[in-house]
């Protein structure tokens, strides 16, 4: 029975196969032809000498691609995938399938992928439509090394795609124990070529493209590879704005390349008109005979009637897409406004994800948004030296540990910068508490809370790699199957890498405890500032109250003697001496009554002081 939303011929056979159905013969009609020109081949640089500027290839192998052909420029051509001849019915099926693919992709884009199938499968046409607009000129390093030798090369997007497309050219040499593909930048053509070559799991690819500020560092175990997503914290430009983590699938800051516009939904009948108005010799005869067959059959279902009338189901409206874009624009405007208000005495930290793939064959793939690869330069320099642990061990899991250690070291630099800032603010608060200092402390406290949320999962990842690596690898094997009962369980991390991961774990423990300590100091300084302000205000009010108490009897008497009665014996028959004779005794009685608590505290302080001095004198006599 044909599936829903499909077209059938007169015999009931479906003319629209599933999207993942391969073209007969295993050859894609649109398979490209690869040839590697001279200036696009992988060079043979040597760490003991300067790398060569140009190389040629004479055979499709890694060694030949790195050797220089003295006979002159040459190219390595590979077999061309010929496009098979398709009949009218097959062309009709291909066109309808393309229309339906674009419709489904449009629906997913309008709904922000809500309810879509999890994972990103680069073999499906929908992945090209949805992620094909993610483009960036990447810088790619390919390092093959062992304890005795090393080979290094840099290439562009096209060069890597051409290299991976040929099995012989991309094969490692026999001496190479570890291959490290370090990708700076994020581009769909590079990621697609890597995923097809090494069979990366679709869920891991989804995590690569859908990375947002709410994303946590994580580690996932798959049958063929280990996947890690670690958030890198680096000190940014003090005069700039911190970079945030957003999804590359929705045009984020991870890639600065141009974005293609989203496909627009079809109107009624547009998909059918595209076919009907095409080549009449190709589609006209087949479709005309199909219409006559439908008329002879008499009964027609709704899908056949819609096909004959040239109408397709209307795609979703652009209103939801416009609304989502407006909400995203408003959120970014608010973020920019808040970032502008926070400028000043702030630690600028750039947070970006690094994706690491560890394969069983010794291949390590790392992807980072930094296109100049400045973050991983220390690892590259260590691989250039023979006596380093990375070279002598030739352990791919130790390379993953080195990348994790590098990320943690960058986080330590951030923590040290926060320590300096807090010391400076503490000095300002102790000298003269001000509201501007409280503002800076408030911003600093908020940043520390956010960094704790992004840094704490790294500690969990490191602990999981040390403690549960073998258990999680065993969970991938179905022990209920008889064929897997004698399978030896081997984890992805070696024993030596786990030993060095303990040091990374200690550093993460220090970072997290430092963040908690800094957050506590920040809150204490804020509370101290407000307490000092309140204390100063209380002191001012106390002085005013004391002055009021002193002059209260005088004010009372002055009001009495200042009344304008016609006859006042105290005013007419006496001088001002009578005023003072009354005021002074009243002050001597009223003032001690109001100051009695302060007088008691003063006496208590004098008594304690005398007891303390007496104890000191007694100690000195002994």
UniProtKB/TrEMBL annotation:
Q: One Pfam family, short name please?
A: CorA
* Gene Ontology MF terms: cobalt ion binding; cobalt ion transmembrane transporter activity; magnesium ion binding; magnesium ion transmembrane transporter activity
InterPro entries in the record, alphabetically?
Answer: CorA_cytoplasmic_dom, CorA_TM1_TM2, MgTranspt_CorA/ZnTranspt_ZntB
Main subcellular location: membrane
Polar residues: bias regions:
27-64, 250-263, 282-291
One GO cellular-component annotation of the UniProt record comes to:
plasma membrane
Q: Keyword annotations for this protein?
A: Cell membrane, Membrane, Transmembrane, Transmembrane helix, Transport
Q: Which residues cross the membrane?
A: 544-565, 577-596
* Compositional bias per record (Basic and acidic residues), positions renumbered to this chain: 301-310
Q: How does it sit in the membrane?
A: Multi-pass membrane protein
Q: Which cell locations does it reside in? A: Cell membrane
In residue numbers, the region (Disordered) covers 1-94, 241-310
Q: What family does the database annotate?
A: Belongs to the CorA metal ion transporter (MIT) (TC 1.A.35) family.
PANTHER family to which the protein is assigned, alphabetical: CORA FAMILY METAL ION TRANSPORTER (EUROFUNG)
Q: What is this protein called?
A: Magnesium transporter
The protein's organism comes out as Lentinula detonsa
């Amino acid at each position: 029975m044909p599936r829903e939303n499909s077209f059938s011929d007169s015999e009931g056979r479906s003319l629209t196969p599933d999207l993942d159905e391969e073209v007969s013969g295993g050859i894609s009609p649109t398979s490209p032809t690869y040839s590697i020109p001279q200036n696009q081949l992988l060079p043979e640089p040597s760490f003991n000498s300067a790398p060569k500027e140009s190389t040629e290839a004479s055979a499709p192998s890694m060694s030949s691609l790195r050797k220089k052909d003295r006979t002159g420029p040459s190219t390595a051509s590979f077999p061309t995938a010929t496009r098979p001849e398709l009949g009218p019915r097959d062309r009709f099926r291909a066109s309808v399938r393309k229309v339906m693919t674009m419709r489904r992709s449009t629906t997913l884009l309008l709904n922000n992928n809500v309810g879509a199938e999890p994972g990103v499968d680069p073999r499906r046409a929908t992945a090209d439509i949805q992620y094909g607009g993610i483009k960036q000129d990447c810088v790619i390093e390919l390092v093959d090394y062992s304890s005795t030798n090393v080979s290094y090369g840099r290439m562009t997007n096209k060069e890597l795609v051409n290299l991976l497309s040929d099995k012989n050219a991309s094969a490692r040499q026999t001496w190479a124990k570890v291959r490290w593909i370090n990708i700076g930048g994020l581009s769909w053509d590079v990621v697609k070529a890597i995923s097809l070559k090494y069979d990366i799991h679709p869920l891991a690819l989804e995590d690569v493209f859908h990375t947002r500020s709410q994303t946590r560092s994580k580690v996932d175990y798959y049958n063929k590879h280990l996947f890690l997503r670690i958030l890198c914290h680096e000190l940014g430009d003090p005069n700039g704005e911190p970079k945030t983590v957003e999804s590359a699938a929705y045009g984020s800051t991870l890639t600065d390349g141009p974005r293609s516009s989203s496909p627009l939904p079809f109107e009624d009948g547009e998909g059918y008109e595209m076919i009907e108005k095409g080549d009449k010799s190709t589609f006209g005869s087949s479709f005309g005979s199909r219409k006559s067959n439908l008329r002879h059959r008499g009964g027609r279902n709704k899908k056949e009637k819609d096909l004959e009338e040239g109408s397709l189901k209307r795609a979703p409206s652009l209103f939801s897409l416009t609304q989502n874009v407006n909400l995203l624009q408003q959120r970014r405007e608010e973020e920019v406004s808040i970032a502008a208000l926070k400028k000043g005495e702030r630690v600028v930290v750039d947070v970006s994800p690094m994706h690491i793939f560890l394969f069983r064959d010794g291949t390590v793939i790392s992807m980072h948004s930094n296109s100049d690869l400045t973050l991983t330069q220390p690892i590259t320099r260590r691989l250039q030296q023979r006596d380093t642990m990375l070279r002598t061990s030739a352990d791919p899991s130790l390379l993953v540990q080195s990348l994790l250690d590098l990320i943690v070291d960058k986080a330590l630099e951030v923590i040290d910068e926060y320590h300096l800032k807090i010391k400076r603010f503490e000095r300002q608060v102790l000298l003269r508490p001000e509201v501007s200092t409280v503002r800076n402390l408030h911003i600093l406290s908020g940043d520390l809370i956010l960094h704790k949320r992004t840094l704490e999962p790294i500690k969990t990842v490191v602990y999981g790699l040390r403690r549960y690596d073998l258990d999680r690898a065993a969970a991938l094997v179905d022990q209920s199957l008889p064929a897997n009962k004698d399978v030896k369980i081997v984890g992805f991390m070696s024993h030596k890498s786990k030993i060095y991961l303990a040091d990374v774990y200690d550093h993460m423990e220090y970072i997290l405890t430092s963040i908690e300590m800094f957050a506590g100091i920040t809150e204490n300084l804020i509370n101290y500032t407000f307490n000092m302000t309140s204390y100063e205000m209380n002191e001012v009010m106390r002085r005013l109250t004391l002055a009021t108490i002193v002059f209260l009897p005088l004010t009372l008497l002055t009001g009495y003697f200042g009344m304008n009665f016609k006859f006042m014996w105290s005013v007419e028959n006496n001088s001002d001496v009578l005023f003072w004779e009354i005021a002074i005794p009243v002050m001597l009685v009223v003032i001690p009554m109001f100051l009695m608590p302060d007088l008691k505290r003063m006496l208590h302080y004098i008594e304690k002081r005398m007891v303390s001095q007496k104890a000191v004198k007694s100690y000195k006599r002994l």
